[in-house]
Design brief:
The chain is α+β, with helices and mostly antiparallel strands and about 2000 residues long. It is built from 62 helices and 45 strands. Strands 36-39-37-34-35-44-43-42-41 form a nine-stranded antiparallel sheet. Strands 1, 2, 3, 4, 5 and 6 form a six-stranded antiparallel sheet that branches. α23 packs parallel to α26, α26 packs parallel to α28 and α39 runs parallel beside α41. The longest helix is centred in the C-terminal third of the chain and has 28 residues.
């Protein structure tokens, strides 16, 4: 068997094809992956993919393309890098990173960047292919790489990636170069990215396309030139294009004749008054409209002119073509000035050439030098473009530039008529002729676009003897042909006759060079016009050249010629690098011919123009040194001065490019071997005269030329030594030493008197460093270094700080450090001390810091990382000793210096700081153990060491600042951090050795710990935020530096010993911040420190309250910043619990850890919920949870108040105005009406407590008003009014009373929607902690139905999925890790409903597999709110608008029913075994409150027997019938349809067997025998059945009275069916008590039970008093089911008659909210039956055919309205109530059904019918403002907190249509579609209710009412015992103003009872209904009320 063999060379490869890896141990590969190969065996490799090195496997060899690679750390931990071009490597890795981010751009909808990046990536891939092929030339490869890196940098910048340091397009390894060099590279690239260097050279590209005109027909000539309107002169030559008769280029195939480049434009030329001028000349007839003559003579005639400003091209799109308007002059004589007139807008002198005439031209400005343009616009130059030069030399004259151009401008002429009556048509012909008179062929150039010609013809101006042409021509005559050449101008008259002949009448000429060799001088010349005839022989030029040519050159006696009127004016301008017009220059160059003129010529050299000198630089220098060699004694000084002048001339920016020409001359052409002696001698003479000279200017000019003077000296000596074999060496050295002695002497002098020697010294120092390189050619390195050291050392040291010499010294030092001399280590050790001395002096005085930083950078750049030589180590020692301390102080000073406001100064300061920082880092990187030891040994005292450590720790903190480096400098930051941690590890030893035990210094240790914490928390070290590739690179190079620093912190902490107490609690916050970093190893290291802190705090003070307080305070702020996670919470808990297992204080420690852990849970939930995009409901719920935790468990008042306001803001944003009011009320209740001053807090100003409480009251009242919760606002209005009244502030008192009155009006006038309530359960560990495994009751939004609520829950928890299950979840679901379950149940106010399937939600897909035993049915739990304010609901005469508020506000308890069968199910009559499971939910707070939902605190389950259920159903229907009959009697109903439908539904159901089923079930002998205890209940059921028949009979009587004629048949049918019903029930005559049953009440609504006898039912509406047994005498009456029967539930009553044929009807007795409907198609036809009766739809135990869909789950607004009222009960017949928990007690609710969210009465919880002995402490609640003095509110104990919810209806909502069952004075619209068919459902509506609630599950109390002091004083105590937060409700309370305000520090101790507060009416709950909590729960830490400092 073959073995796997480690590979030697096959280490790196690229995958060619994808490999699935299906073989054993196979490694899946994707095409393009890079793999590292470890082993090989028989055609297989073993290795891993580089992007996932942990997964190793095998793969085929032939799938891999091998590449050469470089191996580091060969062996187990080897790393492999491909040995390819670094640019290729970077491209590959960068494109991989971009690929992932590119996809995210698409996801984030950043389309623009997505497409741009896509194009750039494709471009880079294409360039990568070109580089890999390797066929590019060297220059092309360089261009491609430059382009690639530019694209990579662009993409990195766009994607926010790091800036890559590069050198020559290749990435640099930061470990391989100096830190200073790295900084310089980063800074260079950053500056290049930010501010591109301005370009000083510009070029204008012009492309003529066509001339568009309607009147063409002749050829055209177009001339372009650049014109300066300020100077009124052209700046460039002309560009000439010929056009054909169609206006198109004549030679279209030759692009160079259509395109040109105006070159060498300076930045000053790009201004508004510089224009592109276009002159257009036509070639044709004299007149544009003339007939064509026979002679075919062509004339050049003016056509038009166009002008455009160059400045306009800077803003225009360069790719657009320009259409230039063409103008014509009005008179031809102004043609030469047309462009000026257009520019100056002299409109009278020109007009448009034609409306359609335009010149189509492409114009584009290009920037950069011409070579750069050739590279960037290669196509342009390849295709062909002519170059149009600037007139004269450019701003910068380049050596080697060859030009010899003579420009002649024909300005104007003056001619006589010549005997003619009209002026002539003059044409000028120009010729260039040589010495022999032969025409120079091709040397007359009109413009750059066309080749030169032999002659040139000017345009002709018609009949003009004084023509002005201003035409420019160029004569590029070679230099050798210039002498003897001349230009001739011939003048002809162009006849317009038929012959069209041109007659010669004169000529002029001008010679180009004078006899002395000077050329024609520049300027304007007036030439003489010599007359001649047509046949004159001008070929013999010798004849006329003897004549005078210019009037300025005529002798004085030649008046004849002078007086002639005919002249020609021309302007000449010579642009030549070889010819001169200067006679002095010629005299100097020809000095041998005139030796007597040498002195004058040398003196005049300084007056010659510099351009003339540089043109003849070599010749001039040869002349000077020739004179020096031959006459050194006589002319040495003058030659030296001339040489200095020429050298200084080259310092000018215009001629600086000629320095290389001089250098070349010195190296190659200079031959003055003896000149060095004279030069040294003269230079020394000047230096010696410096001290005595009164004027220093000339000497300073000499010293400025020091560099080149030394070059000439050294080169001369070398030539002499070469020629003589090294003779006179000692003499030369002696002269040089003497020279330097003179220099040192003059440098050592200080200013004396009026001689400014300092300035001269500065001039020499500026030039001195340039001499080093020349000296090294003849002296050794050490000799030159000694020269420099002694020269610099001679400088005066006592100079003033503001002396300019100081800056020059530093500049000299800079040049010295940059020089080749300093680079040599041998000379560096000599120069370093003097350099450091000067540098240290400047840095100490904070002068010239930019230069100091540069010097230090250069010095440290020379220190290589791997320098281990003794010399390098000594250099580091020397630098550390000299500048480390001052460098630290400088960084501190610069960093803390206030920054200037100017934006331009900031980069300079930033550069200085960055330079110094890079120097410090470079120095620290080079320091080894020995350097640190020597550094620490130099500190003679502990104070010095302490100051140094403080300084360096502070500087390190500065380096870590985010603003220290630009954001994308991650490479620089990592290098910085690596150096910092290395230095800290060295210095920590010094800290341990010198500052522990008795020498402990808190400040140093604190600085150390602060630095460590800041270091770990840096954003650039948070590797979790980086991409995988970037994280891998960092870990490979540096490791995780956070863990290293964390271990160092732990080690240092352990060394502190008892000194740890100094850092408790100060370092708790910083260390906590460190532990929150998501690095497991770091957390494991740092978390145990908290145990140590707890232990030491326990030793010191016996507890660790400081640790606890600090932990809690910091956790909130840190976690709100996004730090911490669930893993940290678990780790924190587990590590600390394990640590404290054996501690004596273990229990208190566990308590602290549990508290902190619970706080983390809530803070994590809060942070997750507050993320952008989360819904408001989740945010509010989480904030409520956190707020309660801060108050009840942590007692943190300030945090509690902060979160109150955060919650308030959330409610306002969600428009939950009622909840916002309750929330702000929490803060209001912490304040008192006192004058105690309060500090500024949150958005509150500094004010008194009274003022703040007043402001809060007004804000709360305003929000209650917006939320339509006016009852609560009234209470606060009263309280505020009492305060105003006590202060006699009647103005505000009046306003408050008026506001209170307006609230009463709004209560009575405005409609309020009643909300629906939903039960929601959240199960599973994936929910937030404040929701996890809890159930809630939620107050719905306005108009929100069940379906909308369920969808909202799904949207809030998008990862949840549906699970349908009726029972409570088991523990497997509670503990589920991968799923969470959400159950929603509908809760209807005013109804007790049967449990229906509701929707359940579960997170994660695998929940379906784990919960296969669950049903998938929809669950809806209809829940009844149980109001506490029963007195208001039962009192007579209280309007429904008032009652509706108390039915749905301040609700603590809710109830819902679930039907089930117990025992054997009778298929014939299922009523026998149909039981109801009734669940009562008690909330922790009442709704509404500070949230829209509150947690269910307690669940109570009771079972209602079938008999009790039957009693409830019939009672409810009877109450509904009574209400409708009463409304009809009292004319409250304008439409009788509701009563008709209700009668029809009940009678039809009874006839069909509904009541008969009850008879069969409960009236049979077997049931009575088996249930003897139900005798009374059976009797009660019988009474109710008879009572219903009696009510129906009475109702039919009333119905007959009001029924319309068209409904009489229906009425007759109802009567007939009623008789059938009576007979089926066996009723012949009603018992007396039934006949006495009351129906009608005096005020039209059922009155609360009184002891007086009720009214007897009277069809006419009358009343008689009859004593009878009230139905309330039966205990079951005290509970009514709050169900509403839907339209389908019209079968309910029919089922009682026994006509049900299936099990469907069994459940019709059970009311359900989901089946209500107001639709008309649910009318009460006797034949209408439901396939899914209401009570059957919700039971999970029923068969599928009984289940219904979500469409049938209807909300209360879909149900019709009804009223419930019971009969009053005779006190003598009232039985004793059953005790709590009695199973025989009927479990039923008052049936409370309401119209659609308008008025929904609630059941009462007590009855006035009961005698005082039966009240059991259940005092009736009273209205908010009782008319009597002794309000029960003052004698009833206040209840637990009430929480808030969203406003029932927005203010802007339209008023809701009132219910027909409601007492309305305005009547009702008949035939309303909302009401049709609604009364068949049997829903009853309560207008007035006298039913008392006597639940069997409620506890009773023996106290009737608590005394005022006892009830109010024990309020807080009871709340503590129940572990309930303080009341989140408003309440009336007496607030007596204190005589003396409490001091701010006073707080009420928890053990003292709170002062008595009168309870508010809506808060009153009976004592037996208050939730009881087990005593074993710990009491919450109370916040003292009324003493808030905030």
């Amino acid at each position: 068997m073959n073995m796997w063999i480690p590979t030697e060379h096959e280490k790196y490869g690229v995958v060619l094809a994808s490999f699935r890896g299906t073989v054993q141990h196979g490694l899946p590969l994707e095409i393009g992956d890079t793999v590292q190969i470890l082993e090989k065996c028989e055609g297989w490799y073993r290795g891993f993919v580089l992007k996932n090195p942990n997964a190793k496997g095998i793969f085929p060899c032939n799938y891999i393309h091998l590449k050469n690679a470089h191996i580091k750390n060969k062996g187990q931990f080897e790393t492999v890098m491909p040995t390819e071009d670094s640019v290729i490597t970077e491209m590959t890795s960068t494109l991989r990173d971009w690929g992932a981010m590119w996809k995210q751009l698409f996801v984030k909808n950043e389309g623009d960047l997505f497409h741009r990046l896509w194009h750039v990536m494709n471009e880079i891939l294409d360039l990568r292919r070109q580089v890999l092929v390797g066929h590019l030339t060297h220059d092309r490869m360089r261009d491609v790489k430059q382009h690639i890196t530019a694209r990579l940098d662009w993409g990195n910048e766009q994607l926010g990636l790091d800036l890559v340091p590069r050198r020559e397009f290749s990435m640099v390894d930061p470990d391989e170069i100096s830190v200073t060099e790295l900084y310089r590279l980063m800074e260079h690239r950053h500056r290049k990215k930010e501010t591109p260097t301005p370009v000083s050279t510009h070029h204008l590209f012009v492309h003529l396309k066509s001339l568009m005109s309607s009147n063409l027909g002749e050829e055209l000539e177009v001339f372009f030139f650049i014109y300066d309107s300020r100077e009124n002169k052209p700046l460039s030559e002309r560009f000439f294009v010929k056009l054909n008769k169609n206006g198109l280029p004549k030679f279209p195939e030759k692009t160079e004749r259509q395109c040109t480049l105006f070159v060498d434009l300076g930045s000053g030329d790009l201004r508004k008054d510089v224009y592109i001028v276009v002159h257009i000349i036509r070639i044709g007839r004299m007149g544009a409209g003339e007939k064509k003559n026979t002679s075919n003579v062509q004339y050049r005639r003016p056509f038009g002119c166009a002008v455009v400003s160059i400045a306009d091209l800077l803003t225009a799109d360069s790719k657009d073509d320009h259409l230039l308007k063409v103008y014509a002059c009005n008179t031809e004589s102004d043609w030469s000035q047309t462009h000026d007139n257009i520019i100056k807008k002299v409109n009278s002198r020109y007009n448009l050439s034609g409306s359609n005439t335009g010149l189509a031209v492409a114009l584009q400005l290009l920037h950069g030098d011409i070579e750069q343009l050739r590279r960037e616009y290669m196509v342009l130059f390849t295709r062909g473009v002519s170059i149009t030069k600037k007139l004269g030399f450019s701003d910068v004259i380049m050596p080697g530039e060859m030009r010899n151009d003579l420009y002649i401008t024909l300005e104007k002429g003056e001619f006589e008529k010549g005997g003619k009556s009209v002026a002539r048509n003059v044409e000028v012909t120009v010729y260039a002729l040589d010495t022999d008179g032969q025409i120079l062929k091709g040397f007359v150039a009109v413009g750059s676009g066309e080749p030169g010609g032999d002659e040139y013809h000017t345009f002709v101006l018609y009949h003009n003897n004084s023509p002005r042409w201003s035409e420019l021509i160029k004569l590029p005559i070679p230099v050798d042909m210039f002498r003897g050449s001349h230009v001739r101008f011939e003048f002809r008259h162009c006849s317009t006759k038929d012959k069209g002949e041109k007659k010669l009448f004169g000529f002029s000429f001008v010679p180009l060079m004078q006899e002395d060799g000077r050329t024609l001088p520049d300027g304007t010349h007036e030439l003489i016009v010599h007359k001649c005839e047509e046949n004159a022989n001008l070929q013999d030029c010798a004849r006329y050249l003897k004549l005078p040519f210019s009037k300025s050159n005529l002798p004085g006696n030649n008046q004849t010629v002078k007086g002639t009127k005919e002249s020609l004016w021309i302007t000449s301008f010579l642009c030549s690098t070889k010819l001169t017009q200067n006679g002095d220059m010629l005299d100097l160059l020809k000095w041998r011919a005139h030796p007597e003129r040498i002195s004058d010529s040398l003196s005049k050299l300084k007056e010659i123009d510099g351009s003339e000198i540089v043109k003849f630089l070599q010749d001039t220098l040869d002349t000077l040194f020739g004179i020096l060699d031959e006459s050194s004694q006589r002319y040495a000084l003058k030659v030296f001065d001339c040489l200095v002048h020429i050298i200084n001339l080259l310092q000018d920016s215009k001629f600086e490019h000629f320095k290389p020409v001089m250098d070349t001359y010195i190296e190659s052409h200079f031959a003055g071997a003896l000149s060095y002696r004279d030069l040294i001698k003269v230079l020394k003479w000047y230096v010696d005269r410096i001290i005595e000279a009164d004027r220093q200017e000339h000497i300073q000019q000499v010293l400025k030329a020091t560099e080149y003077i030394f070059k000439y000296i050294i080169q001369s000596r070398r030539l002499f030594a070469l020629a003589t074999g090294g003779q006179s060496e000692e003499e030369f050295r002696c002269c040089m030493h003497e020279l330097f002695m003179s220099i040192r002497f003059f440098l050592s002098q200080e200013n004396k008197g009026s001689r400014p020697i300092t300035q001269t010294q500065a001039v020499f120092l500026q030039q001195f460093p340039a001499v080093y390189g020349e000296l090294l050619k003849l002296f050794t390195v050490r000799e030159v270094a000694t020269f420099v050291r002694e020269t610099l050392g001679s400088l005066p040291t006592a100079s003033q700080a503001d002396c300019p010499l100081e800056a020059v010294k530093l500049h000299c030092i800079t040049k010295t450090v940059e020089s080749q001399l300093y680079t040599n280590p041998e000379s560096r050790c000599i120069l370093l001390p003097v350099v450091l001395r000067l540098l240290q002096a400047h840095m100490q005085e904070q002068r010239d810091l930019v230069m100091c930083a540069h010097i230090l950078t250069c010095m440290l750049s020379l220190l290589k990382k791997d320098d281990a030589e003794q010399t390098a180590s000594e250099e580091v020692d020397l630098i550390v000793e000299s500048v480390l301390g001052v460098l630290l102080r400088t960084i501190l000073e610069v960093s803390n210096r206030p920054q200037p406001a100017g934006p331009t100064l900031r980069p300079q300061v930033q550069d200085v700081t960055g330079e110094f920082v890079s120097c410090l880092l470079a120095l620290l990187r080079h320091m080894k153990d020995r350097h640190y030891q020597q550094l620490l040994q130099r500190f003679t005292s502990k104070d010095d060491l302490r100051d140094f450590l403080l300084h360096i720790f502070t500087v390190f903190r500065i380096l870590i600042r985010p603003e220290m480096f630009p954001k994308d400098w991650t490479v620089m930051r990592l290098v910085t951090n690596n150096i910092i941690i290395t230095t800290v590890l060295y210095l920590s030893d010094a800290l341990r050795k010198n500052f522990l035990s008795d020498k402990f210094d808190y400040k140093v240790w604190d600085s150390y710990f602060c630095l460590s914490v800041i270091f770990i928390n840096q954003s650039c070290l948070q590797l979790e935020t980086f991409s995988a590739s970037k994280r891998k690179k960092i870990l490979e190079k540096y490791g995780d530096m956070r863990v290293m620093m964390g271990c160092e912190i732990f080690s240092m902490w352990q060394n502190l010993g008892e000194h740890k107490l100094n850092f408790i609690p100060a370092m708790i916050g910083p260390f906590l911040e460190v532990t929150l970093v998501p690095q497991p190893d770091l957390r494991n290291v740092m978390i145990p420190i908290f145990h140590d802190m707890m232990d030491w705090e326990q030793r010191r003070s016996g507890n660790f309250k400081q640790v606890e307080a600090k932990l809690i305070d910091k956790l909130d702020s840190l976690m709100s910043e996004g730090k911490g996670d669930e893993t940290y919470r678990e780790l924190f808990n587990s590590i600390l619990l394990k640590k404290i297992e054996r501690e004596t204080w273990r229990e208190s420690g566990i308590s602290l850890i549990a508290t902190v852990t619970r706080l983390m849970e809530r803070l994590l939930d809060y942070r997750d919920c507050m993320k952008l995009g989360e819904v408001d409901g989740k945010k509010i719920g989480c904030t409520v949870s956190l707020l309660n935790f801060y108050k009840t468990e942590l007692n943190k008042e300030e945090m509690y108040i902060r979160y109150i306001h955060k919650l308030y803001d959330l409610h306002l944003k969600a428009q939950n105005y009622t909840e916002a009011s309750y929330t702000l009320l929490l803060y209001d209740e912490l304040l008192e009406w006192s004058e105690r001053p309060l500090r500024e807090f949150l958005s509150y100003p500094m004010q008194s407590e009274w003022q703040r409480k007043e402001y809060l009251h007004l804000t709360i009242i305003q929000n209650f008003d917006r939320g339509k919760c006016w009852e609560n606002g009234i209470i606060l209005c009263r309280e505020l009014a009492d305060q105003y009244e006590s202060y006699y502030d009647y103005r505000n008192l009046s306003k408050m009373r008026m506001m209170e009155a307006s609230f009463y009006d709004k209560i009575m006038d405005q409609q309020r929607l009643e909300p629906e309530f939903f039960r929601v359960g959240f199960y599973g560990k994936k929910f937030p902690f404040f929701l996890r495994n809890k159930e809630f009751v939620c107050r719905g939004h306005d108009y929100e139905r069940l379906e909308a609520f369920q969808q909202r829950m799904l949207n809030e928890f998008p990862h949840a999925i549906a699970m349908q299950h009726a029972n409570q979840p088991d523990q497997t679901i509670y503990q589920a890790e991968a799923q969470c379950i959400l159950q929603t149940s509908l809760v209807f106010p005013g109804h007790s409903h049967t449990c229906m399937p509701t929707q359940t939600l579960m997170l994660a897909d695998d929940i379906a597999r784990s919960l296969t035993n669950f049903h998938a049915d929809l669950q809806i739990y209809a829940v009844t709110p149980i109001p506490d304010s029963q007195d208001v609901l039962q009192r007579d005469g209280v309007p429904d608008n008032i009652k509706s508020f108390y039915k749905v506000n301040h609700i603590w308890r809710f109830r819902y029913d679930r039907p089930f069968h117990k025992g054997t199910k009778d298929k014939e009559n299922e009523f026998k075994s149909l039981w109801v499971e009734r669940t009562t939910l008690t909330l922790v707070q009442s709704l509404p409150g500070i949230s829209r939902w509150f947690e269910v605190e307690r669940r109570e389950l009771v079972e209602v027997s079938p008999l009790e259920n039957a009693i409830e159903v019939i009672e409810n229907k009877n109450l509904q019938l009574r209400t409708l009959i009463t409304q009809c009697q009292t004319r409250q109903m304008q439409n009788i349809n509701p009563l008709t439908m209700c009668l029809n539904g009940v009678i039809d159901a009874a006839v069909n067997g509904g009541l008969a089923r009850y008879q069969e079930a409960f009236f049979v002998k077997d049931y009575i025998m088996n249930h003897p205890e139900d005798g009374d209940k059976i009797g009660r059921l019988r009474e109710l059945m008879f009572e219903q028949a009696h009510i129906l009979e009475f109702g039919l009587t009333v119905h007959e009275k009001f029924v319309p004629q068209d409904m009489r048949p229906l009425h007759k049918k109802l009567v007939d069916q009623f008789h059938l019903m009576k007979s089926s029930l066996g009723i012949q005559e009603f018992p007396a008590y039934v006949r006495a049953s009351p129906i009608h009440f005096t005020n039209g609504s059922p009155r609360a039970g009184r002891n007086s006898a009720p009214n007897i039912m009277n069809p006419e509406g009358g009343a008689r008093v009859v004593s009878r047994r009230s139905p309330l005498s039966y205990p079951a009456v005290n509970r009514y089911s709050s169900s509403s029967l839907s339209s389908q539930a019209s079968n309910e009553v029919s089922n009682i008659t026994g006509q049900s044929e299936s099990s469907d009807e069994v459940f019709n007795m059970q009311p359900s909210p989901s089946t209500s409907s107001l639709s008309s198609n649910h009318s009460a036809s006797p034949n209408v039956t439901s396939s899914a009766p209401s009570s059957a739809r919700g039971s999970p135990q029923l068969s599928d055919k009984h289940k219904h869909s979500r469409e049938n789950c209807l909300s209360p607004r879909e149900r019709p309205c009804s009223a419930i009222y019971p009969n009053p009960l005779d006190p003598t017949q009232r039985p004793v109530p059953h005790p709590a928990g009695d199973a025989s007690m009927p479990r039923s609710d008052p049936n409370i059904s309401t119209p659609d969210k308008v008025v929904k009465p609630a059941p009462s919880s007590w009855s006035l019918d009961m005698p005082p002995s039966d009240f059991n402490g259940k005092g009736p609640p009273v209205p908010p403002r009782p008319p009597y003095t002794g309000s029960p509110a003052k004698t009833t104990r206040s209840q637990s907190p009430v929480m808030t919810s969203r406003s029932p209806q927005k203010t802007s909502a339209p008023p809701f249509t009132p219910s027909p069952t409601e007492c309305q004075t305005t009547g009702l619209v008949s035939n309303s579609p909302v009401l049709s068919g609604s009364y068949s459902s049997g829903i009853s509506s309560l207008s007035r209710c006298s039913v008392s609630e006597a639940s069997g599950t409620e506890n009773t109390s023996t106290d009737h009412a608590l005394p005022n002091s006892a009830s109010s004083g024990s309020d807080e105590l009871i709340r503590r015992e129940n572990k309930t937060p303080p009341p989140y409700s408003i309440h009336e309370r007496n607030n007596p103003r204190r005589q003396v305000p409490l001091p701010p520090s006073l707080s009420i101790p928890p053990s003292i009872d709170a002062p008595p507060i009168p309870p508010k009416p809506h808060q009153i709950r009976r004592q037996d209904t208050e939730p009881r909590r087990p005593d074993q729960f710990p009491r919450p830490r109370p916040i003292p009320r009324k003493v808030s400092q905030l």
